[in-house]
Write a structure and sequence with these properties.
Elements: E1 3-14, H1 23-27, E2 29-46, E3 51-56, E4 61-66, H2 78-92, E5 98-104, H3 114-130, H4 136-150, H5 158-165, E6 168-173, E7 179-183, H6 188-197, E8 198-202, H7 209-221, H8 225-247, H9 252-264, H10 274-285, E9 290-293, E10 301-305, H11 311-318, E11 324-325, E12 336-339
Parallel strand pairs: 3-5
Antiparallel strand pairs: 1-2, 1-12, 2-5, 2-6, 3-4, 6-7, 8-10, 8-11, 9-10
Length: 340
C-alpha cells in the first residue's frame, strides 16, 4: 500500500497580516485568498522494519531513524518531525515505521504558503493512512498548532485553512481564536479574467518570513499606532476585494492591491526593498495598475494586476530583473488524499 496526498499553494489577495498574532487576538482579522495549481505533495510508504525515513525530494534532504516515538528537532526536516511527533502523541500512541517523501512546487520563502501547505499535506497523508477522522477545520487547526505552538514558528493562520479548504475564500479570524472560512462563489468568467490579468512574477529571491513577522508582531505589541492603523486598513482591503470579485468588478483589483501594498509597507521594516520597489514601479510604468509582494514580504513572488493585454508588456519589461512569470490556474479543491 502507498498513501499519497496533495494540497494547493495560495495567492494572498487581501488582508494578509491581519491573521497574525497579536493583531488577530486583539482586533480580529480578515483575509481573502485563492488557491492555485501549484502544490505540495506527500507519499507515505509503510514499512515493517521499524525504520523512519524522511525525504524532501525538492530540498534533497534525508533523515533516517529507527524505533522512535519522538523525533528530536535539530534543524533537519523539523516540519516533518513535528508532524510525526504530534501524530504519535495524539493518534497512534506508539512508534510508526514508514518512508515519507515530500515535494513542493515552489521553494521555501516564495510567499505562497509553502511551509503551511506542506504541513497540511503530510497531515492529510497520515490521516488517510491511519484512518484518523478529521474534518477540514480540525485538520487546519492541528496544522496551525504544529507550526506555531509545537515548533514555535512565527506566522499567521490563513495558509493552513487555504490549503485544507481550497478555492477562493474570505476568512475571518476572531478574538476568541475562532476561524470561519467563507467560500466565495465567483463566476467562472470573472475568475478567468482575474487569472489572465493577474501576473505571478517570480523575483528569484527568497526571504525568511519569520523575521518580518516578528517585527510586525512587536510593533503591534508595543502599540505602534502607524502599524496598527495600517493593519486596520488591510482588514478593510479584504472586504473591498470580496465586494469587487463578487460583483465582477475585476479591474478594481489593481487599485485595491495598490491600496493594500502601500499600507502593508507601513507594518514593519523589510517588507519591501529597493529591488522590489523598482520592479513594482517598472510594472506600473508598463501598464500594471497595482500589485504586492506575496506573503510576509522581503522577496519571493510578486502579484501584479495588468488590465487589458498589458500583461505582455509588463512581463517583457520585468525580464531584465532576472525573474520570470509563473503560469498558474485557480483551483477549486483543497487537500486531497488517497491510497494505492
Amino acid at each position: 500500500m502507498i498513501v499519497r496526498s496533495r494540497a494547493p499553494l495560495r495567492l494572498g489577495l487581501a488582508g494578509g497580516g491581519t491573521d497574525v498574532a497579536p493583531y488577530s487576538d486583539l482586533f480580529g482579522g480578515a483575509v481573502l485568498n485563492a488557491t492555485i495549481s501549484m502544490y505540495a505533495y506527500a507519499t507515505i510508504i509503510p514499512r515493517s522494519d521499524g525504520k523512519i525515513i524522511l525525504y524532501s525530494v525538492d530540498k534533497g534532504e534525508r533523515y533516517e531513524a529507527s524505533g522512535l516515538g519522538e523525533l528530536p528537532p535539530d534543524g533537519r526536516l523539523d516540519l516533518l518531525k513535528g508532524i510525526y511527533n504530534r501524530v504519535v502523541k495524539e493518534f497512534s500512541h506508539e512508534p510508526l515505521s514508514f518512508e515519507l517523501q515530500t515535494y513542493v512546487d515552489a521553494p521555501p520563502g516564495s510567499g505562497l504558503g509553502t511551509s503551511s501547505t506542506l504541513v497540511v499535506t503530510v497531515l492529510g497523508a497520515f490521516a488517510e493512512w491511519l484512518g484518523i477522522p478529521m474534518g477540514e477545520y480540525d485538520l487546519a487547526r492541528l496544522a496551525y498548532e504544529i507550526e506555531r505552538i509545537d515548533l514555535n514558528m512565527l506566522g499567521g493562520k490563513q495558509d493552513q485553512y487555504a490549503a485544507t479548504f481550497g478555492g477562493v475564500n474570505f476568512m475571518e479570524f476572531f478574538k476568541d481564536d475562532k476561524v470561519i472560512v467563507n467560500p466565495l462563489r465567483i463566476k467562472t468568467e470573472y475568475l478567468h479574467e482575474l487569472s489572465h490579468n493577474l501576473v505571478l512574477f517570480n523575483t528569484r529571491t527568497s526571504r525568511i518570513s519569520s523575521t518580518i513577522i516578528e517585527r510586525q508582531a512587536r510593533n503591534v505589541s508595543h502599540n505602534n499606532i502607524k502599524t496598527i492603523e495600517a493593519t486596520h486598513r488591510l482588514k478593510e482591503q479584504a472586504l473591498m476585494m470580496k465586494d469587487a470579485l463578487l460583483r465582477g468588478e475585476i479591474d478594481k483589483v489593481g487599485e485595491i492591491l495598490d491600496f493594500g501594498w502601500e499600507n502593508k509597507k507601513l507594518m514593519a521594516t523589510g517588507i519591501s526593498n529597493p529591488k522590489i520597489d523598482e520592479i513594482y514601479e517598472v510594472a506600473r510604468a508598463n501598464g500594471a495598475s497595482g500589485g504586492k509582494i506575496s506573503g510576509a514580504g522581503g522577496g519571493g513572488f510578486m502579484i501584479l494586476y495588468c488590465p487589458g493585454n498589458s500583461r505582455y508588456d509588463v512581463i517583457e519589461a520585468l525580464a531584465a530583473y532576472g525573474g520570470s512569470s509563473q503560469h498558474y490556474d485557480f483551483t477549486h479543491s483543497g487537500l486531497t488524499s488517497w491510497k494505492i
